[in-house]
Amino acid sequence: STQDTVIEARGVSFAYQARSGSAKTPHVAVRDVDLTVRRGELYALLGTNGAGKTTMLEVLEGHRPAMAGRISVLGGDPSDRRHVRPRMGIMLQDSGLAADLTVRETVALAGAISGRRDDVDKVLEHVGISHRSRTRAAQLSGGEKRRVDFAMAIWGRPELVFLDEPTTGLDPASREALWSVVDELKSDGTAFLLTTHYLEEAEKHADRVGLMHAGSIRRQGTLGELTEGGVSTIRFVPPE
Length: 240
Ligand code: ATP
Description:
antibiotic resistance; ABC transporter ATP-binding protein; globular; 7 helices; alpha/beta; binds adenosine-5'-triphosphate
């Protein structure tokens, strides 16, 4: 039913304005994309570097305004700070944590801003970062920072979570820990839109995938539908 639809995008396009210099034509990074994500569903955007995955995610989460098309997220506009944004969690590639805040302060502050309720110690425990609770962000490893970013995204169990390459830079045990939290929230009805370069993660955890190339979703469906002989048969660049 339409009540179960958390993201509905039709004909969405986005172009980056050319910087001052020789080329003045805008760079079209997302081109006429249709995409639907339902409650409790995990949708993974796949594609080579520069395909438009991050841009698509940033348009759908309301960070960049679509230049064409229609987007409905949780029944409203994704940039709506009153009715829509408090119900979503977002983990981008570079969160830029405040260097001087501790892990605990960072997550508690982001949680307060989100407007959702949760217990900071439980959330830190949940994502496996509680042993670094009093460490300042500047002292964390890259993988530890990613876990803090993830903690902020899942704080208060949002209805919809956006994750941009959530497991890039994580060691295998941390990747597995992150996925077990995602699967748990998903079984509670949380929807996910994420990007990844790890096909085996998409194969194991995504309900549907979209293969992006040059700003378009060229094929979408279950990974099984898109591959006959396993994920190694995926071709990102369609034959000319
Ligand atoms: P990756 O796998 O490397 O993260 P991606 O699929 O997420 O790539 P995007 O980051 O969305 O791709 O980039 C899509 C296109 O838009 C690329 O051609 C990129 O060069 C361009 N682009 C991205 N960010 C900007 C920007 N801030 N200004 C201008 N062009 C940009």
